[in-house]
Structure formats: C-alpha cells, structure tokens
Amino acid sequence: MRASNVTKAVALALSVAWVAGCSTGSKTSEGSATAGTDTGSTQGVSQGTGVSGSSMSDVANLQTVFYFDFDKSVVRAAGFEDLEKHAAYLAANPSAQVVLEGHADERGTREYNIALGERRAKAVERFMQVNGASASQIETVSFGEEKPAILGHSEASWSQNRRVELKYVTR
Q1: What is the reported pLDDT for 25?
Q2: Which residues of the chain have pLDDT under 50?
Q3: Long-range contacts from 129-132, C-beta under 8 angstroms, 24+ separation
Q4: N or C: which end of the chain has fewer CB within 10 A?
Q5: Chain centre to alpha carbon of residue 84
Q6: Taking the model in full, what pTM does it have?
Q7: Are 105 and 161 in contact (CB under 8 A)?
C-alpha cells in the first residue's frame, strides 16, 4: 500500500514536470503573421518606419481602396504603407472610427461572396489592429457582389470589384 502511494506521487510529479516542460511562451517573428492557407490573414507586418499618421492631413491623401487577388483575402503588400498610416492615425485619435466594406466580384454564389467580402474586411481590420488601431474603432461590413465598383463581366472589371473600402465615420 505504501509503495503504491509513492509510485502515484512519483508519477504525478513526473506528469507535472513533463507538462511544465512542454509549455512554451508565444514566439512570433515579424513578417510572418500568416502561414499556409488563405484564412483572411495579413502578411508582412513591417516596422512602419516613417509612419506618423497622427493628423488628418497625414491620411487625407492615402489610398482608401485595397484590392485583392481572385478568391483571396490576403492584404496585398502594395497597401501596407497606407494601411499602417491609417492605423497610426486611429491610434493617435481614439475617437476616430472607420468602416471597412468588403466586396467580391460576381463569380461565386451570393453566400460565398458575402463570406469572402467579410474575410477581406477582417483581414484589413487585423492588419490595422496589429499596427495600433483599436478594435472598437473599426467596424466591418460585407456587401459581397452587391455593390460592384465597375459593371462588367471581364477580368478588368472583376479586379476592381475585389476590394475593401476604408471609410471614416468620425475623424
């Protein structure tokens, strides 16, 4: 009986030590915010050098429409700099709020395009939050294929419709 209790105590101590040894702290590296499949993620979070974005004049002339590849919801690198400046502006102005409107081209079912537009808007939202914007300052809406920027059935028109539009509600 006594040996059984000692064995149980040793087994418990080894289990605790093993669990403690398996736990690790979160380790992330810059520029690798995503991996693998397209889950509406952002990539390539940079250091934001030279980004102030603290006044409205800093963001007034920035890009507010961000385009996506076909059937993807990954923010293109071409929009990183402007999104960082928008995020810096939001961080410096806590009362400012934006709406991110996600859109898709006409290909795909209506339900799929609503979900794709939402994933795109959420990808931009995550990018901005990583760069300093607060979640309470950002609202996302998906219009799917319902509000095309350009009418047409060609790749040129579809590429303009795969987008997220950033609209300030309050500044």
Answers
A1: 35
A2: 1, 6, 9-37, 39, 42, 44-50
A3: 129/87, 130/33, 130/42, 130/45, 130/87, 131/45, 131/48, 131/83, 131/84, 131/87, 131/88, 131/91, 132/87, 132/88, 132/90, 132/91
A4: N
A5: 12
A6: 0.70
A7: yes
